[in-house]
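Renewal narrative, Specific Aim 1. Our central claim is that a sequence can be written position by position from structural information alone. The example that follows is taken directly from our test logs and has not been curated for this report. It begins with the structure tokens describing the chain, in the order in which they were read.
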């Protein structure tokens, strides 16, 4: 995460928290982040030197007025005026990290070969909650390369109990074995 993203994201979070708007602003930021991910040309437009700052801010005003909270709109305008729109994703990440820290949330990615059932997700969530004492927000990412099992990525840690990991360990052991 960039320093710009961290500073601006934390500032927006503190404002939203002080106004008891952290949940709704966080949801709006997540929706905007996904929209900008799907339409990266919009970020390029807001960063274009061919348009004045006033024109770029007017594009934001026309696009988002009455659709997002005024704090979010003003935040987008500030990033645009400063030339920092490329850091929007980092700002969202910082906002989310501060929100999660204050609310005892832990985001976990479970990487599996096939989608987890609700029962499996529930068991993983319950077990991680007991271990960490935090509210678990589980996201399941499908990766057929893991072959089977599950890999959990959270808080800078990786717990890997996948078939591919075990095969790699066997492969390494065999490569070191002298016959």
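The sequence written for that structure reads:
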């Amino acid at each position: 995460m960039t320093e710009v993203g961290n500073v601006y994201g934390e500032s927006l979070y503190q404002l939203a928290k002080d106004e008891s708007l952290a949940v709704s602003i966080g949801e709006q930021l997540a929706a905007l982040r996904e929209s900008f991910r799907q339409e990266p040309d919009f970020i390029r437009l807001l960063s274009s030197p061919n348009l004045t700052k006033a024109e770029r801010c007017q594009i934001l005003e026309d696009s988002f007025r009455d659709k997002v909270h005024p704090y979010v709109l003003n935040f987008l305008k500030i990033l645009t005026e400063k030339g920092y729109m490329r850091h929007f994703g980092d700002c969202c990440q910082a906002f989310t990290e501060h929100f999660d820290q204050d609310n005892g949330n832990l985001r976990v990615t479970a990487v599996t070969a096939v989608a987890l059932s609700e029962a499996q997700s529930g068991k993983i969530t319950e077990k991680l909650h007991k271990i960490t004492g935090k509210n678990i927000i589980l996201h399941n990412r499908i990766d057929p390369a893991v072959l089977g099992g599950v890999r959990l990525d959270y808080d800078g840690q990786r717990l890997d109990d996948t078939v591919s990991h075990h095969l790699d360990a066997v492969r390494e052991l065999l490569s070191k074995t002298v016959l």
